[in-house]
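agent: user wants the structure for ABC-2 type transport system ATP-binding protein from Geodermatophilus ruber. delegating to structure tool.
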Amino acid sequence: MLRPSVLGMSDAIVVEGLVKRYGGTTALDGVDLTAAEGSVLGLLGPNGAGKTTVVRILTTLLKADAGRAEVLGLDVVRDGDAVRASIGLTGQYAAVDEYLTGVENLEMVGRLYRLGRRQARARAGELLERFDLAGAADRPAKTYSGGMRRRLDIAASLIARPRVLFLDEPTTGLDPRSRLGMWEFIADLADGGTTILLTTQYLEEADRLADRMVVIDHGQVIARGTADELKAQVGGQRLEFTVTTAAVLPDIAARLRGLAVDEPQVDEQARRLTLPVSGGAEILAEALQRLDGYTAEIFDVGLRRPDLDDVFLALTGHAAEAAATDDDPRTEPAVTGGVR
Ligand SMILES: Nc1ncnc2c1ncn2[C@@H]1O[C@H](COP(=O)(O)OP(=O)(O)OP(=O)(O)O)[C@@H](O)[C@H]1O
Ligand SMILES: [Mg+2]
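agent: tool returned. relaying tokens verbatim.
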């Protein structure tokens, strides 16, 4: 859903024809995207799609080989300093200094942004409070849990009250409860008017937070639109069976194959079979009839609209969650530049 503030506003992020090569690898192959001021743009794509490369170019950490990128009307190459002064970045991997305490980490970043000592301290205190880290403010960051580090990392990117915030997989590695908390922080920031570009492997996250989405694969945009537009593009319904033992899945899939309009998906771990179907309850009745004799093994049955995971699967040929390689936000040494 578009935030009302988004309507009629100009674009805070403009990317046109972006190309980036690493030796023989083309990481970006002509990417175009825009994000309206005050909106949240979700940048989705499997591992290696080019998401981080887009973020690094927009945050001036990397130069493109062709194309242009602007943030708040400023060219990321020509006006790099001005861009850095108006953005915040939370990179894919945590950039907190392990040996500094929470408050020291934030003060250091505040000083990098040229805040006065007292101002940096005040802002650090405010952010620690807001991110539920006040109680741990005086402990070295190495004693923090993964979720606390991630929160500290995001707090650091907000020190200078950026108008545009880049979040590269902000909740990877967080447990479900911490993830919910992070979503609330991000939604609050968006409601406060901050423009946000968010990359994520969690499609529910994009669905919850993003006004619009751009899906990239192999460095090219393969789809864009609101969540509803993307779901409508995939269309139909999903018939889903959860069974008591994965052993019966192949046989069930074989019996139902004729009902599916596309390849059925089998998730052995979840003991679940998902069939793209066109039609409603009559398909469900037909399916149950074909499964006569398996009633004891069927644990749950449902008919639902496609979700973003189905969209992702249809577009890229693989599931989003399976594409995630790393559950833990890895730690890198703190960046000692103007941009984190
Ligand atoms: N410094 C580098 N040197 C060489 N190749 C690179 C470098 N950085 C990225 N690549 C390649 O560029 C492509 C895009 O990488 P990028 O990190 O932007 O993907 P991503 O969408 O962020 O992936 P992930 O979901 O794993 O974070 C990949 O093929 C990657 O191997
Ligand atoms: Mg990445």
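agent: one observation worth passing along. Residues 51-52, 92, 168 surround magnesium ion (ligand 2) (CB under 6 Å).
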